[in-house]
Amino acid sequence: EVQLQASGGGSVQPGDSLKLSCVASGFSLGTYNMGWVRQAPGEERELVSCIRSKGRITNYIDSLKGRFTISRDIAKNTVYLQTDSLKPEDTAVYYCVADQRYCTAFVEEFDYWGQGTQVTVSS
Q1: Fewest CB atoms within 10 Å of the CB: 47, 66, 114, 119?
Q2: Is residue 54 within 8 Å of 60, Cβ to Cβ?
Q3: How far is it, in rounded angstroms, from Cα 116 to Cα 9?
């Protein structure tokens, strides 16, 4: 059974950092494309970043370049999202997602979703 367990969210001040983690079970990261999707209050879900099974990374939100970094540790079957210089507009629920076929901005196409971890940025 495929499961994704996300953690690492919290309430922080602007400029702070958080490292989100997603532990996968039931499959190997080397065979799946893994991403992070976020949903801000009242907004549509959007793909933040995706790392393909072979390791290629695509970032989907220009405003996050240089601040958010996706990575993975295959030995730990864990994917990470390092979030730096957080801003209030980064407040959202962050979901770990997985799909064997592709990375796609059409987030509903991802086959597997974790439960989400809340990130709140406020002063």
Answers
A1: 66
A2: no
A3: 9
- The three state secondary structure string of the chain is CCEEEEECCEEECCCCCEEEEEEEECCCHHHCEEEEEEECCCCCCEEEEEECCCCCEEECCHHHCCCEEEEEEHHHCEEEEEECCCCHHHCEEEEEEEECCCCCCCHHHCCEECCCEEEEECC
Q: How confident is the model at residue 28 (pLDDT cuts 50, 70, 90)?
A: very high
Q: Are 99 and 25 in contact (CB under 8 A)?
A: no
Instruction: Look at the block and give the residue holding tokens 């990130």.
Output: 119
CA atoms within 13 A on the CB side of 68: 25
Can you tell me the distance from the alpha carbon of 48 to that of 44, in angstroms, rounded to the nearest whole number? Answer: 12
Task: Quick: pLDDT tens for 32-49.
Answer: 999 999 999 999 999 999
Strand order from edge to edge, sheet including 3-7? 3-7, 18-25, 78-83, 68-73
